[in-house]
Amino acid sequence: MADALEKIKEAAAVKPRKKTFVAIVALILLLLGWATLSGGGRIYIGYSGRWTGFSLGHYYMPDAFGENSLKWRFVIFGPVRVDHFEPETRIIEPPTEASVVGAYLHTNRLLNDKIVLEPGGRFYQEVTYTDGRVWTITNSWSLTDLTLRLDECYEPYDWEKKVVRLRPERVTITALWENKGFRCFNGPMISKTFRRSN
Hints:
Layout: H1 2-37, E1 42-62, E2 68-85, H2 97-100, E3 102-107, E4 111-118, E5 122-129, E6 134-144, E7 147-158, E8 163-178, E9 181-185, E10 191-196
Antiparallel strand pairs: 1-2, 3-4, 3-10, 4-5, 5-6, 6-7, 7-8, 8-9, 9-10
């Protein structure tokens, strides 16, 4: 009789663990279904770091063009966190040469770097240092899809030493076109951004 009671106690102790496991699996499947019905996208399931009753929310995150259009939703139930990132569904039309004509400015505490893209594929650049020195150049530019190419312009930064040069160097720049300007890259995390100023 004592053995039978002991087995019943063991079985009763296991059942809540099984129920908890089944509940968590069911919740994850429910959340996966919710995320899939929300239009696909990326889903991440993880541990929230603490036990929370129930929490849900969303964030608007800037996309590659600086617009707050990508949505990120999350649900936390107990220790389980599910994040859902909606897919980027916009079709991005490349800009036309006529739409990018204008003045663009990059500034920091040591200089102003202004580039004016003119019709017909010519650009004018003016690099003005805070001590009054000015360097100017005129050359050609071209646009292919989202890539802007500036033939032989001034680069006032020494990317390796991470300093502003006393005399800018002449270089060819290939930049990624963005919504309101363009970004020049020199390495994976090194870039400078020019924003439309007119």
